[in-house]
Amino acid sequence: MTLADTIAFLDREFPQMRAGGLYELVAVGPLTATMRMEFHEGHLRPGGTISGPAMMALADYALYAAILSNIGPVGLAVTTSLTFNFLRKPGPTALVAEARLMKLGRRLAVGEVAITAPDSDDRVCHATGTYSIPPER
Known about the structure:
By secondary structure, the chain is of the alpha+beta class. It contains 2 helices and 8 strands.
């Protein structure tokens, strides 16, 4: 699916991703997707850093978008596993997730996500995820 097709599908079938206008899918490509999470004070944890759950949501959304943009509008592709390595404390800033699929099969997709601040190449989080793709009917 194109970027516009993927955004339209997500807006229709998964509107909670766009709640508050914080998440924006900015690019899709062969086995990839890029998503941006705007800064919101609600994402901060004590110490002034972006919380783990906010980064987890960003990574999950980015991988889901990468999968959908490559297999089409399969809303029931679901997360089965996510693993996170928090590498640095991100300050109060927007974050960018670069998702890349390592395997895209008929029933499973496996990918990784690098999360950085927009003005840095230093990763703040590395995530890997597995998604179940429903059989065609």
